[in-house]
Each structure stands twice: as C-alpha cells, then as structure tokens.
C-alpha cells in the first residue's frame, strides 16, 4: 500500500482530515447534492483488461485482451477487443496483421477446440479424445522415424537426422517448457523445428 | 515549405517501435491556460456548471499570475544526480511550502479572482486568505502537502493549493528532463506527490502508453497499464465506467487495496485534461465509491472525495 494513501485513510478515520468537500466549502453545496442524487439512476459497467501473449509465432508479442463483465464477480465475460501491449518491450503495442486479427481468431466458428481426425478417404473431420489423438500421432511419428531416420551420411559420418517430420511449438510458453520442448525434439533427431527458444 | 525535423519527429521513424519517455515535464506557459479552457468547455450544460466555471476562473488566475516572484531556487546538478542515483524525487516537497514565491502567488491569484462570479462563501474565503501573512500561508501550504486540511478551512486551503501548483509547475518546468527518472513507487519523480489521475496518451513515440499526472506540479510519468498505482498489484484490476457514457473515462479499481484511480483515454479524446476532467467526471467517483472503492487520486479541487 502506498504510504500516502494509507496516511490519508488514517487521518480521515481519526477525524483529523477533511469532512467537508471543496465544492461545498466554496458555496456550491446545492448543485453538489443535486448532482449526487441525479447519478443514482446510473450504473457502472466493468471492463477487464488482461495481459497475455500472442499465440502465433516465436516473437511472443505482448497483448492486452479486453472483456466486458468480470468473471471474478460472477458476471459473464465477453471478449470484445485485443490490442498490442504498449508496455511490452518486444512489440511496444504493435502487432502484425495476424496478431491484429486475434479477436476473430478467438471467436472464429471454425476454431479448433479439441482434437479432430479426417481419416484416409473420408471427406469430414471427426472428434476424437486426446488419448486417441496422442496415441495415433506417436504411432505415426515412430513409424516415420523408423523408416526415414538417417544415422550416417554418404561419407559415413554420424549425423542422426530425422528430416521427414517437423515440429512447431507454441509461443506463449515459459522458459522451462521451451527448454524441454527443445531437448525432446532435438534428441529425436528432428531438424525441422521452431519454438520460442529460437528467439 | 520544407521543414526541418528533429530526431523525435522524423517521418522516417513513423513505422518504428519507440520506447516511451519515462518523464514529461509540464509547460507552465500553457498548462493553466489550457486547463481553464477545458474547464470552461466542460462547464457548458454540466450539472456542476457554476463550480466548473468558477474553477475555470481560478485556472485563468493561475495562468496570469506567472512568472512567479521571487524566482524559486532550483536544485543543483549534483543534487539532481544524487536523487536520480537513489531514485528519489528531485525536489523536497516540504521545501516548496516554505518557498517565498508561494505567498506572492497567493496574493496574485486572489487579486485576479476578485472580479469573477462566485458565491458568498468563496468570496469570504478570498478575504480570509488575503488577510493572512506569509507564515500562516506557509503553514496552510504544509497542511495541503500533508493532506491534513482542517475541514472548516477547506476553501482557503484550496486557494493556497492553487498557488502551490503554480510555483511547483514553474520549478518542474525549469528542470532538465534528462536528469529525471521514474521512482520505485507510483509517485511524481519531481516532487514525490501522488498522482491526480492517469491518461493513456496519443503522443508521438508513446502512443497508447499510460502516464500519471502529478497532483502538485503536473509532471507526467510513465506507469505500466493494468497495474494498481496505489499498491503496485496486478491481480484484481478492473475498469469501471458509467453505463452508456463515453468510453474515454474509466476508474481503474484494484481489489487488493480497494482503491481506484481514473484513466483518461486521451488517445481517443485529446481534449481530456488530467485535472479538469477529473472534476468533470465526479459522477464516476460517486458511483465507484458506492461500489466500495476509495479514491487514491489527489485533487485539491475535489477535496473531501
């Protein structure tokens, strides 16, 4: 707590500070009272601004999301605006065209909210569980690596490359997540790789 | 005609990412004139019209009383360097109260305000203040700085506060801006006072950044958005505004310390003034107080809130 503010609160409660207002003291008490009673008809609305990180690329620009209504007070919150965070040292409030369109990304009807699969020969996506999705991805990765892993190049030098699968990781992650992602992907031999740790 | 651009306004910079300046000093030459104009514009049709019109006259008196006499003593270069090194305010607030220029400025403001329209109570306060001597005025100035204004003398102290603001703004305006830096707490880097309000500005090189304005010397300093100016907390910050009102004036409320400070979106409405619009948006204070938050912004013109 700011010293100044706690002092003022103390002085007020101790009766040492002001009781009257400047408006009243100058003789405008009548309009002050009228103003106070007329505003009772009005209500407050709440906007919550939340700091976040743009999910697109490894630059990890700072963003501020604006939502109407406060979830913490049991209200329903609706995302209404997203803009660059001026206080963020990386982007200083600027955003690229993709970042500037984030609101439509968050509210898109076609936004992917759970794993889906389009099986070979099928013309539509079906929802699957995370377990099914992860098992299938792991199976396919393993098969691909077994088939295409390059242990030695033409000159017989050990290279341990796996170039037929790529890995794109998120930007809004911690240092630790980025570190672990890097170790897992690189130790598998994968070269086609991007995540936040690059920057 | 061709125009010579300084590095700060070079058109080549238009696409660049610039760092907002930490501190912006007031320009005493235009500060009070603009405030008077804004108060005058706000008063038209406002429920508090007579009070705002009176404050416009007061701000006009603050404008015309300059330059303050005798000229205040500025801190020496090595004092400024030391303040900066330890992140302390450049001026000692209590020394401002004893500045000889305060008393002369009080006289100047009273003389220029006498022809204005005002209620009897205001005229009586002018008479009381003009009868006081330099010693009493220094005590009143100290009470203003301590936020310990006796409730039966609020009007008299507001007049002294107005004089203090002029002297402080003149001192602040004469400091080298490069010698200043923001402090650890959200207090004025020049005089260490609490802010009156904050503004999201549209300045070149600082577009969209938030600046707090000093309640005493009108210096502005950069302060991170979505962070409580009173306790520094970042949890439980919300922006309260009056339903159906313009979305340019909001109260940044903090659930940690239950206080709020107004944020003016100058970037959307460049006419907003940190002091004038603070009085003009009193309705927001009344509603936010009802919601259980305390006002952290200091404004002598709203003493008692």
TrEMBL record, chain B:
Residues 1-24 are annotated as: Disordered. One of its GO terms (molecular function) is ferric iron binding. Its main location: cytoplasm. Residues 20-181 form the FdhE N-terminal domain. It is found in: Cytoplasm. One of its GO terms (cellular component) is cytosol. It comes from the Bacteria. Keywords: Cytoplasm. Residues 187-225 form the FdhE central domain. One of its GO terms (biological process) is protein maturation. Residues 226-302 form the FdhE C-terminal domain. InterPro entries: FdhE-like_sf, FdhE_C, FdhE_central, FdhE_N, Formate_DH_accessory. Pfam families: FdhE_C, FdhE_central, FdhE_N. NCBIfam families: FdhE. PANTHER family: PROTEIN FDHE. Necessary for formate dehydrogenase activity. Belongs to the FdhE family. This is Protein FdhE homolog. It comes from Enterovirga aerilata.
């Amino acid at each position: 707590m700011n010293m100044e503010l706690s002092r003022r609160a103390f002085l007020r409660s101790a009766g040492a500070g002001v009781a009257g207002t400047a408006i009243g003291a100058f003789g405008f008490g009548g309009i002050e009272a009228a103003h106070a009673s007329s505003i009772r008809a009005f209500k407050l609305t709440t906007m919550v601004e939340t700091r976040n990180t743009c999910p697109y690329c490894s630059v990890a620009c700072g963003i501020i999301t604006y939502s109407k209504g406060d979830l913490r007070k049991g209200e329903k919150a609706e995302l209404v605006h997203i803009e660059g965070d001026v206080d963020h040292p990386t982007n200083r409030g600027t955003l690229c065209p993709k970042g500037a369109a984030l609101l439509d990304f968050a509210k898109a009807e076609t936004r992917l909210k759970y794993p889906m699969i389009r099986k070979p020969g099928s013309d539509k996506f079906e929802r699957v569980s995370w377990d099914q999705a992860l098992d299938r991805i792991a199976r396919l990765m393993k098969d691909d690596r077994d088939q295409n892993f390059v242990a030695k190049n033409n000159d017989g030098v050990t290279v341990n490359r796996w170039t037929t699968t790529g890995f794109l990781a998120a930007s809004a992650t911690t240092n630790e997540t980025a570190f672990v992602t890097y170790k897992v992907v690189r130790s598998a031999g994968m070269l086609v790789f991007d995540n936040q740790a690059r920057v | 005609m061709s125009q010579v651009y300084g590095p700060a306004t070079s058109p080549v910079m238009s696409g660049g990412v610039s760092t907002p300046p930490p501190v912006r000093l007031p320009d005493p030459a235009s500060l009070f004139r603009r405030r008077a104009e804004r108060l005058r514009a706000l008063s038209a049709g406002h429920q508090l019209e007579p009070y705002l019109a009176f404050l416009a006259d007061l701000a006009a008196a603050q404008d015309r009383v300059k330059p303050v006499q005798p000229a205040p003593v500025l801190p020496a270069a090595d004092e400024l360097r030391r303040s900066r090194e330890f992140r302390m305010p450049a001026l000692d607030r209590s020394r401002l109260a004893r500045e000889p220029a305060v008393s002369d400025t009080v006289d100047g403001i009273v003389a220029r305000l006498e022809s204005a329209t005002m209620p009897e109570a205001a005229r009586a306060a002018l008479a009381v203040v003009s009868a006081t001597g330099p010693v009493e005025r220094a005590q009143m100035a100290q009470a203003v700085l301590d936020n310990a204004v006796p409730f039966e003398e609020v009007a008299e102290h507001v007049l002294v506060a107005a004089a203090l603001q002029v002297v402080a703004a003149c001192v602040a305006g004469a400091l080298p801006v490069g010698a200043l830096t923001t402090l650890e707490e959200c207090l004025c880097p020049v005089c260490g006072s609490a802010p009156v309000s904050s503004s999201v500005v549209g300045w070149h090189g600082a577009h969209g950044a938030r600046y707090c304005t000093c309640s005493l010397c009108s210096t502005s300093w950069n302060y991170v958005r979505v962070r409580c100016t009173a306790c520094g907390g970042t949890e439980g910050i919300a922006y309260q505004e009056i339903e159906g009102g313009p979305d340019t004036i909001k109260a940044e409320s903090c659930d940690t310390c239950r206080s709020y400070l107004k944020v003016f979106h100058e970037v959307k409405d460049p006419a907003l003034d940190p002091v004038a619009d603070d009085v003009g948006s009193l309705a927001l204070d009344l509603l936010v107080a009802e919601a259980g938050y305390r006002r952290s912004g200091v404004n002598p013109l709203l003493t008692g809130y």
